[in-house]
User: Fold Ribonuclease H protein from Sesamum latifolium.
Amino acid sequence: MLGGRQFGSLVPERGLRKGDPLSPYLFLLCTESFSSLLQQAENEGRIQGVSICRGAPQISHLLFADDTLIFTQASAAGSRAIQDSIADDLGVRVENKIELNLGLPSRVAHSKRELFATIRDRVWSRITGWNEKLLSQAGKAVLIKSIIQAIPTYAMGCFKLPVTLLKEIHGMIANFWWNNRRKNKVHWISFDKLCASKLHGGLGFRQLHFFNLAMLAKQLWRIMRHPDKLLSRVLRARYFPQGTVFYAPLGCRPSFTWRSLHAAQGLFRAGCRWHVGNGSLIRDLVDQSTGDWDSATVSSIFWPIDAELILNIPFSRLGAEDLVVWHYTNNGLFSVRSAYHLALAMEFRPYSSNSREAEQQWWRRMWQMRLPGKVKVFVWRAALNALPTSLNLLKRIPGTSSVCPFCHEGRKMLFMHLLTVLSPGKYGNVDSSALKSCRTSLCWAPPPLGSVKINFDGPLFDHGTELGFRVIARDSAGACIAWLSRRVAGRATSELVEAMVAREAVLLAVRHGWQSILIERDCAVLISKLRTAERDCSLVGPVTEDILTLATAFSACHFLFVKRECNSVAHALAKSASGFAEGGTNIPSAVANPVALDLMS
Assistant:
């Protein structure tokens, strides 16, 4: 075809070579055509899809990558006829036994451990090859985290793997990390401690059971957030037709897939929270006349400390909907990492204390040292007394001498030797400040001609019981053209206060009718949320959505992150007047000097 006209015909004489750039596009065209033909045949009643229960959608075929699954009536003759027809048309043979599909079992047998034995074999194959190489423990840790623990990840996202299988993999990993070239060595630290976070004295290896639950919780999150997807509709029709995935029962004779997802339901519920937008789902607690909380009703239902926190949750002023968010991420979206740490916390119940925080700070500084990985692992083992010293060998191997081979003294601590070798006097005179890069001087810069730059600050007063709103706007000449100072009672997080003040800054620009504005703040988290295209599902989500909606009214609206030195006027205004005040060029005396300094710079 050329210009819509046909010129002869083209007869292909050979197939495409491997890697031909046309191959993916031709494959997509053929797949779409095949899918359309199957859909047309189903609509005409020539084939009938499969429905797992009454009310569930019928499925005639599924496509994934280069695989196609066709579902039809449970008739051996019909299935065989389809296979023979496809084999004759395409010139391929029929595979009678397909045990794996996309690396996952196509049929679920009684022995789940043998069903997923291929995962164990793949792990063992990798470790066997690495045992022939001379690797440090730091290098082994990298291989374990990046390769070994990634092998079962895909299967974990669909099924709950047997605990016995995961323990086998844990044992393989532990033997590989401690042993050396197939020589069995002493495991000085348990595998559970190796799986602890680096800030808690571990190496950050994964507890595969809890990681499995986190991966399954991710599927529950997708089902909840995307109810129109095929998987969501199928599972809803079978297991929770009148409810939600939050409290869906296990049901009668459930499939292995649903059993696996149901095992992660407790973790999923523990991490989800309702996010208040316009309050449509909690109308009984909302004063319909004001669109805010009904303080009398809230105070009568909840304890005073809870009622105070609830009353300080802001509503969206522009009608954003209520939705479910993930509590353990800053943006309110689910992440496997946060779900995994939540599962560990629910199992081991970590405690918090001053000594614990000091310990975490020590570990953080140790792992951040600019040293080779094998040296840091040695320091880690020394700190945990996990080195083969004479005293430690005596505990494991009776009859071993407890006398130190270096000083010929008994029961001398390892760190005493380290302190004599690494004497502070040798390295205490190093000037660490010489290693730091010089900081460039930072100052406020005026906006372009015709634009207005707005700086703001959100301080907290009286131990967090009062919120401060401080906004100042300046033109291209650096002169103040408007400012706002407000102090209201309430409790909120610092991030929420920053977002509320940013909304007041935009409203100030709307009231004055400015068309081009630049909003600056030294809060990287808030500015990042205002500049991203994704919906903010965190606590400040309703406020940031209001800001972005208001920003569409300007011809130009930019949110910029600056250093604290560039926001000095807003900080000075934050320390000035209390109550409510708003003005133009008549700036408060407390900020006159900082404004003048910005003009001079």
